[in-house]
Amino acid sequence: xxxAGHSCACCGAPLPDADAPGPRxxxxxxxxxxxxxxxxxxxxxxxxxxxxALRPRxxxxxxxxxxxxxxxxxxxxxxxxxxxxxxxxxxxFGPAGVGKTRLALELANRIQRSFTGVxxxxxxxxxxxxxxxxxxxxxxxxxxxxxxxxxxxxxxSLRGEHVLIVLDxxxxxxxxxxxxxxxxxxxxxxxHVLATSREALRLPGEMxxxxxxxxxxxxVDLFADRAGAVxxxxxLDDGNRGLAELICQRLDRLPLAVELAARTVRLFPLPDIxxxxxxxxxxxxxxxxxxxxxxxxLLSAIDWSYDLLSPTEQAVFRRLSTLPGGFDLELVEAVxxxxxxxCAAVIDVVDxxxxxxxxxxxxxxxGRARFRQLESIRAYAGRRLAEAGEVDAAAGHLTGWLTxxxxxxxxxxxxxxxxxxRLRAEYENLLHAVxxxxxxxxAAGTDERLALLxxxxxxxxxxxxxxxxxxxxxxxxxRVTAHPEYRAFAQEQAxxxxxxxxxxxxxxxxxxxAVELAAxxxxxxLRCRTLATLGYAQQLRGYLPAAVHTMAACLDLxxxxxxxxxxxxALNNLAWATLLSGDLERAGQLxxxxxxxxxxxxxxxxxxxxxxxxxxxxxxxxxxxxxxxLGRLDPxxxxxxxxxxEGFAIAALRERRVERGLRLVGAVxxxxxxxxxxxxxxxRERVGAAVAGALARLPDWRGExxxxxxxxxxxxxxxxxxxxxxxxxxxxxxxxxxPLTRREYEVALLVAQGLxxxxxxxxxxxxxxxxxxxxxxxxxxxxxxxxTQIAAWVAANAGRSRPASAxxxxx
Length: 811
Known about the structure:
Elements: H1 32-50, H2 74-86, E1 89-93, H3 100-111, E2 117-122, H4 131-140, H5 150-158, E3 163-168, H6 174-187, E4 192-197, E5 207-210, H7 216-230, H8 241-250, H9 255-262, H10 270-276, H11 280-283, H12 298-307, H13 311-319, H14 329-335, H15 343-355, E6 360-362, E7 370-372, H16 375-387, H17 391-407, H18 418-425, H19 427-439, H20 442-445, H21 449-460, H22 468-480, H23 484-500, H24 504-521, H25 524-541, H26 544-561, H27 564-580, H28 584-597, H29 603-615, H30 619-631, H31 640-654, H32 658-675, H33 681-696, H34 700-711, H35 715-724, H36 742-752, H37 757-764, H38 768-782, H39 787-796, H40 804-809
Parallel strand pairs: 1-4, 1-5, 2-3, 3-4
Antiparallel strand pairs: 6-7
């Protein structure tokens, strides 16, 4: 037994020997912290003695303990704990199934020693506003006093208490909760409130903490943990991790949905679970005894939120299920046209749905406000839409709005401008409309708009709708339309796709038909578009005189349109065809005119200028043009980028820089294999001749090794290599090599130096969101959770090979 005279009066820890030599005052406490803690306890006891009738009867209350392991979300726990130090009201806010309750209870258990009491008030079962105060009083052990309002009794009892009150599931009683919390915090300086809700309380001083989907790594860990609990033989390994990741992604990485899916592992293998997610609400039903009905299955969790909506909010919510690609206010108005809502009413409904966590903010083009429904919520809204018999009406409104946007493409030579940009942003919604029209009944299945929207999908899809899907959809659309302009546009896009895939005979036939239709019924812009595609097909086929003639006709029409960017493109097309035919002087004149007309210089035009310099034997000028082209190139452009990289490769091989040239050629081989695009025969011969000359000067094994090195790097890394000439094979080429890209390693170094995301963004000259994306990639690749862990990884790997450009830029 510890001698009370030689132990701390607060915690009981042993104290230094009082008989030690030297003058000293007898110690009572082991530290200042214990001294302060004892002081607070004396004050609280004095307050309770002064008001014995109001003393909490359950001072030892604490949050309930969880029986399963809490997985991930350590950053969120730390962030909320920090907020509680400076704010007395925190609302953990998020959609159904995101794990708000579990997060709040885990935090309450971890920090309960910082409070004299932690009280959890479960509001889900309550149905009337006046029950909120009673539930809190019951939790803290306060009895109602005769002739005294219960709220007054509660505030008097808690006024001197440093307690944490967790109000769980406030959304259906949000007004009553707001009134109670406002009164409590206004009259009591001690209590802190941690609320969980699908709708914010909207009180002064409220700190809203949005709880969103889990990071993919955490979601997979959660899946593995819960699956192992119901199926002890389940092991997550390299063979099934990809399927687990797919399941988690399709479930929006929502903890409730992931846990429910994991519980089915004892019944179904992972491939079956992934297939059955098409009917996720039947699959994701809890097969354990869960006291809260909202946690038993995903359907009940979302039902709870839907039932709290007004009829108008429910109607808009249902129609939003037709927009898988997200939406802005204009698109909401379009699909809700039959509801006759004013602009102000649409704003109010969107605000209400967002505040109730049924839609979430999403990044939009050009800073436009944009929203989306999580996939599980959208699936639920789609079920409700079908039950209400509104599918055809909502899809019809969407199709009509998209048709208005796509019609503008018939009057534009280039796929650019506001309408094209808008259609690119609405790609997923456009795809949904095409699928609806293609799969509708016989009457709607012959809708002529199918040809227009399918062509627009191809034209604005940046390659996403190409391949067998694009060919089949375009062929079907052309068969069902008699509208000449729609048909010409669809055939032109089909010809372009066939040409890119190497089916040049098919491309010639389709493009010829499109030219005839456009000449008889189309606008000058549509005629320009069809002529450009026909010239491209002729060029690929090797019919160079015909290609020059067709491109010249296209240029004449473009000049009539008085559109400088269009004229520049037509000039470049004619210059390339002329170059291929061997007329370097005329090609040079056309390139010079194009550069003068379009001073910014399109990447394709700059590539043509570089190839012209190569043909004239000026490799320095060629490389300067190729460098300029890369500076203006979209990093995701898989059409022009391979040509520019091959230009760099030819220049390097002519200068006997064999390693650089062959690596770049290998990188392009990978890109072309993935896209299936074949360049002009003339260009293939030029690249092939340069490669053959280099290989002839090397041992067979060395040349093939260099090509293999290039094939193993992604396009982005090949573009960096073309610019800075610093070879870095990156992950995949060597298992022991640097796992991060140059930019990711650069960001990791700056994190290790203590810089914030904003400071990093300024230093590397990118957007702050880009830095956040890099950090997410770093954490995923390295399986790290915090900035501190990233800094530790940098320190531990300081001696390993790392990207040269990162070494050069970061000091």
